[in-house]
Write a structure and sequence with these properties.
367 residues; alpha/beta; TIM Barrel; 14 helices; 12 strands; binds flavin mononucleotide
C-alpha cells in the first residue's frame, strides 16, 4: 500500500522502530493530554475559502530573518536521530535542503555540527542550543556552530529539566551503545550515563546532570552578546514571555510546547498564537511548531500570524521508514498539500492568507 500522508508514515514507522526508541520519539509528558491536543486542535478551527481566484500559478516563498525560503515549513530539532536510521541527522538535513526547508540541529544529536555541515552543505541550518552547567562546553558549541556555517541559534527555554515521559521511565530509556552524542566526543557529556537518584529515564538523568537550570533572561542577554548569530528562543507559550524575548533583543521566537513533552495540559501553539501575535507580531518574527501534519494545519498557523512552522516527529517517521528518501517524501507530501490548500483557499501568495480565513468552531455555533 502506498504511503500518502504523514499518518501513513507514522503507522509504518511504529511497526519498524525498536520499542525504546519509539517510546522516546512518540511520547509526551504525563497523561499526554497536550500531545492529543496538538493533533486535535487543528480540527477546532475552520477554513473560510474564497472562490473564483485565478490560482493557475502560485508563489509559496516567504521571508524569515531577511532570507527568502521556498515555502514556510522547516524541520524542528529532535535529538538522537540515528536511532531512527543510521544516516540520522545527515539524512534529515539533506532532505530538508532538497525541499527548501530550514533544518535545525539538536545539541543532543547523534551527528556532530561539523559532519552535518559537511554532508548537507546546501541546506540552511540553524543550531538548537541547550546551555550546559559547564559554560565552556556551551561556548565551544556556539563557536563550532558559527564556524560550521549555521545561520541562527535556537535557544530552547522550556527545558530547565525534562518533562515526565512515562514511556522513557518504563523502558529505562538509554541511548543504544553503538551511538553517542556526537557534539561531545571525548567529554563526559557524550553519553546518557545511566540513572540518577531522582530520574529513572537515562535522558532525564542526563539533563538533570548537565543542563543549567539557573538560566534566566540574563542568560539570553549573555548569549546575544556572545554570538554573532541571530538568537531565536524556542518554547514560548505566553505573551508575557514573548514581550520579554522582544525586549531582550531576540530575533524571533518559536511558539512551541516542545511536542507536548515538557508539561502536560499546556496549550498548543495554535491557541496561543493570537495573544502573542497581537502583542509582538510587528516587532518579532513569530514561528510555531507542534502537531503539524497537513497543509491545512500550516495554512491555519500562517493565518494566525506565524511566519514559518516546523515539524519534528513527521521527519522522524520518514527517517525510520526510508532514511533520506523517507524524509523527502514527508516534506514533499506536506509541500504539495500546502500548495493545494493555498489554491483551494484562493491564495496566490503567502501575503494573500488573511486572518479572516480561519475561525474557531465556536464562530459557527453562535450563528
Ligand atoms: C523525539 C523528540 C526529540 C526532541 N528533541 C528536542 C531537542 O533536542 N531540542 C529541542 O529544542 N526540542 C526537541 N524536541 C521538540 C521539537 O523540537 C518540537 O518542538 C516538537 O517535536 C514539535 O512537535 P511535532 O513533533 O508534533 O512536530 C524533540 C521532540 C521530539 C519528538
Amino acid at each position: 500500500m502506498s504511503l500518502v500522508c504523514v499518518a501513513d508514515y507514522e503507522t509504518k514507522a511504529k511497526e519498524l522502530l525498536e520499542k525504546s526508541a519509539l517510546g522516546y520519539y512518540a511520547s509526551g509528558a504525563g497523561d499526554e493530554f497536550s500531545l492529543k491536543l496538538n493533533k486535535n486542535i487543528f480540527q477546532k478551527y475552520r477554513l473560510r475559502p474564497r472562490c473564483l481566484v485565478d490560482v493557475s500559478s502560485i508563489d509559496l516563498t516567504c521571508k524569515v530573518l531577511n532570507k527568502t525560503f521556498e515555502w514556510p515549513l522547516g524541520v524542528s530539532p529532535t535529538a538522537m536521530q540515528r536511532m531512527a536510521h543510521p544516516d540520522g541527522e545527515v539524512a534529515n538535513a539533506r532532505a530538508a535542503g532538497k525541499l527548501g526547508s530550514i533544518f535545525i540541529l539538536s545539541t543532543i544529536a547523534t551527528t556532530s555540527v561539523e559532519e552535518v555541515a559537511e554532508k548537507a552543505p546546501n541546506t540552511t541550518k540553524w543550531f538548537q542550543l541547550y546551555i550546559y552547567k559547564d559554560r565552556i562546553i556551551t561556548e565551544n558549541l556556539i563557536r563550532r556552530a558559527e564556524k560550521a556555517g549555521f545561520e541562527a541559534l535556537v535557544l530552547t527555554v522550556d527545558a530547565p529539566v525534562f518533562g515526565a515521559r512515562r514511556a522513557d521511565m518504563r523502558n529505562k530509556f538509554e541511548l543504544p551503545s553503538h551511538l553517542s552524542l556526537k557534539n561531545f566526543n571525548g567529554l563526559f557529556a557524550n553519553s546518557l550515563n545511566g540513572d540518577s537518584d531522582n530520574e529513572i529515564s537515562g535522558i532525564n538523568a542526563y539533563v538533570s546532570k548537565q543542563f543549567d537550570p539557573t538560566l534566566t533572561w540574563k542568560s539570553v542577554e549573555w548569549l546575544i552578546k556572545f554570538t554573532k548569530l541571530p538568537v531565536i528562543v524556542k518554547g514560548i507559550l505566553t505573551k508575557e514571555d514573548a514581550i520579554l524575548a522582544k525586549n531582550y533583543g531576540c530575533s524571533g521566537i518559536i511558539v512551541s510546547n516542545h511536542g507536548a513533552r515538557q508539561i502536560d495540559t499546556v496549550p498548543t501553539a495554535l491557541e496561543v498564537l493570537p495573544e502573542i501575535v497581537k502583542s509582538v507580531g510587528h516587532e518579532l518574527t513569530i514561528m510555531a511548531d507542534g502537531g503539524f501534519s497537513n497543509g491545512t494545519d500550516i495554512f491555519k498557523a500562517l493565518a494566525m500570524g506565524a511566519k514559518m512552522v516546523f515539524v519534528g516527529r513527521p521527519c522522524l517517521w520518514g527517517l525510520a521508514v526510508d532514511g533520506q528518501n523517507g524524509v523527502e517524501s514527508i516534506l514533499r507530501i506536506l509541500k504539495q498539500d500546502f500548495e493545494k490548500t493555498m489554491r483551494l483557499m484562493g491564495c496566490r501568495k503567502i501575503s494573500d492568507i488573511s486572518k479572516e480565513m480561519v475561525v474557531h468552531e465556536s464562530f459557527y455555533a453562535k450563528l
